[in-house]
Design brief:
The structure is a homodimer. Chain A is an alpha/beta fold. The first copy, chain A, folds into two domains: 63 residues, Hypothetical PUA domain-like, domain 1 (Ribosomal Protein L25, Chain P), CATH 2.40.240.20; 179 residues, SPOUT methyltransferase, trefoil knot domain (Alpha/beta knot), CATH 3.40.1280.10. In chain A, 36% of the residues lie in helices and 22% in strands. Chain A is built from eight helices and eleven strands. In chain A, the strands form two sheets. A six-stranded parallel sheet of chain A has the order 8-7-6-10-9-11, with helices on both faces. Chain A has a five-stranded mixed sheet with strand order 1-3-4-5-2. In chain A, strand 7, helix 3 and strand 8 form a beta-alpha-beta unit. In chain A, helix 2 runs parallel beside helix 3. The C terminus of chain A is likely disordered. Chains A and B meet through helix 2, helix 6 and helix 8 of A and helix 2, helix 6 and helix 8 of B.
Chain lengths: 253, 253
Amino acid sequence: MQQYFVNGRAENPVIIRDRDTAKHMFSVMRLVAGDEVVLVFDDGIKRLAKVLSAENHSFELIEDLPDNVELPVQVTIASGFPKGDKLDLISQKATELGAAAIWAYPADWSVVKWDGKKLAKKEEKLAKIVLGAAEQSKRNRVPEVKLFDQKAAFLEQLTGFDKIFIAYEETAKAGDLSALARELETVETGQKILFIFGPEGGISPKEIELFEQAGGIKVGLGPRILRTETAPLYALSVLSYALEMKEFKSLDS
Amino acid sequence: MQQYFVNGRAENPVIIRDRDTAKHMFSVMRLVAGDEVVLVFDDGIKRLAKVLSAENHSFELIEDLPDNVELPVQVTIASGFPKGDKLDLISQKATELGAAAIWAYPADWSVVKWDGKKLAKKEEKLAKIVLGAAEQSKRNRVPEVKLFDQKAAFLEQLTGFDKIFIAYEETAKAGDLSALARELETVETGQKILFIFGPEGGISPKEIELFEQAGGIKVGLGPRILRTETAPLYALSVLSYALEMKEFKSLDS
């Protein structure tokens, strides 16, 4: 069933005020009175809703749905500004894979230089991609999108996390493939986790130092060299496996 | 260091006969006598090689390199023909993530219909993408690319695997998130594993039946709905984690 995110708190009946959402509902999907969709408000609870009036864009809330597909931890992905449209792919896929937030920062070795205007435009585009992906993958939350125009502003945010992982391929090359697996065994439900990735050229030694000073732990992501846009997808998939499949496994057995 | 795959067995000296490879080496990278690269022949061993003559496209093999980044199992990814250029993305990313082979088959619910000519052209394009990705991610093997024009031909291949997983989101929806984790504990080094994915519309009930008759096991890939091109990346990442990180972990501790 089609799912939509609606800003604000759940009220009954609901009037859809967001223009893009209303357009998709009544022009693209051509919903008519009696049709059902899933609406998700700021509380992250999915609710079954029935169109009252297509003309007034109004819905009646029928019932809460128990379905919760969020990761048991809040994962923020932070990518060094990559080239071209790679952030589009990262944002879409990271949303499908359960990220709570998708950030990007100007890394020492980022080739692209995005100024304030370009950054705002890019952020807006990514927010749309993320909203669409969150609806399609039936998320309970829309990931936050944030592009930092200064690295200092990004560094200031590092204090807000329980764990910070630095994706660093030299760690894997040095033969330690297990750092991430070891660390994930200590992760607890509800924790805030930050995963930092470099741009195409990687993370500079100076940045590694800064991230480590903030408590970051270097981890490899397998023995193969992953492109900058692939690494976050690997990390999120592994988190899902370690915290969702294995967790459920222990409950089962 | 730049890596190239060379068809055939290692011989010393080596003459590069593949036109595209020679062009990349001597026109794009402008290698000159004395420059070093890594060459990988059919045996999958990386060898340090030094340019003898840029004019003759010849190299001297210096030494074998111990570096092996292949997954401990041979994983084949089989996607139902997806729309547009999605196979390009799947092929590139599956190569980075360690797939041994990338297959696609005409699924019941595939929207696209590719005939023989289109298929051959597409296969050729994918082979180039895969070669480039294998070089960039420093693989020891170039994954096989195979597009089946008939589903029957694909089904005939199912007997050649030790384990067949069917990516099936209903399994996860039904609350069993642990099927894949349980199965991966029984996987042994060197086994041949097939992972079957549906196209955008999913795998038809008839196909599920056929795949199960061939020994396929339905597994979910986490609680979120993944797009057809994202599911193989999740599966490969999880295999890497379960078989590479965890394996190394047990050796460490």
